[in-house]
């Protein structure tokens, strides 16, 4: 089986990067390759990533001299990675709010009928989902707006930072730059809808409830980023109406 490559964008992760968790996982698992993208960090992030690259042949590091933001950093990697080497590409936040074990678990859901897999943060008796309450409320409001007015598909959680996409599909939907900085996951879904239609979305997009998601409470998103979310939503609305 061709392997999955997980892209991990990293911007000034020096203080919160849990290199031990990465070491432990990489020592015992070869199922996932990891491609770290240093997004123009001004701290020691690149050194930490290089340490992992030296230690493990399942790890590669891309380095962007200037900061371009999460969406564009992931887009750069998706377009750079050779489609011949991987059947699926994924992406994951560096803070491991979704753990590497959970990422491995959701990767087992890939199949001919699951071409776009979303980790979903659904809090139930049987899951351990720890989110900042304000972020949770804002997330639910965002999902409601997106479901009813923009995407018109009942996707519970578009914003969880853990996704896996069939490489050929990823190459298509990452081709163009994104209009939003933090809502690019919504743009990806809109692009699939536009390219393939809603029937395809219903058939091939799979939401997998995560068993565990713990916010590490140390967000890289700034207050200004939050202010721009309604503006980004409007940009997306008009961009994808065309
Ligand atoms: N804030 C920020 N994060 C970036 C940037 N480029 C890449 N990232 C990465 O995007 C991921 C998500 O960031 P995080 O702070 O965990 O977001 P949150 O969990 O939604 O609050 C992390 O892996 C960051 O290192 C950037 O320019 N700004
Ligand atoms: Mg985070």
Polypeptide structure, described:
The model has no long low-confidence stretch (mean pLDDT 95). This protein has a seven-stranded mixed β-sheet, sandwiched between helices. Strands 6-9 form a two-stranded parallel ribbon. It has a single domain, classed as Spore Coat Polysaccharide Biosynthesis Protein SpsA, Chain A, CATH 3.90.550. With 242 residues, it is an alpha/beta fold. The radius of gyration is 17 Å and the shape is globular. Helix content is 42%, strand content 21%. The chain contains nine helices and nine strands. The longest helix is centred in the middle third of the chain and has 18 residues, at 133-150. It has helices at residues 19-28, 45-55, 70-80, 100-107, 133-150, 167-173, 184-196, 198-204, 223-239; strands at 3-10, 32-39, 59-64, 86-92, 116-120, 128-130, 162-166, 205-209, 212-214. It binds guanosine-5'-diphosphate and magnesium ion. The site of magnesium ion (MG) has 4 residues, from loops.
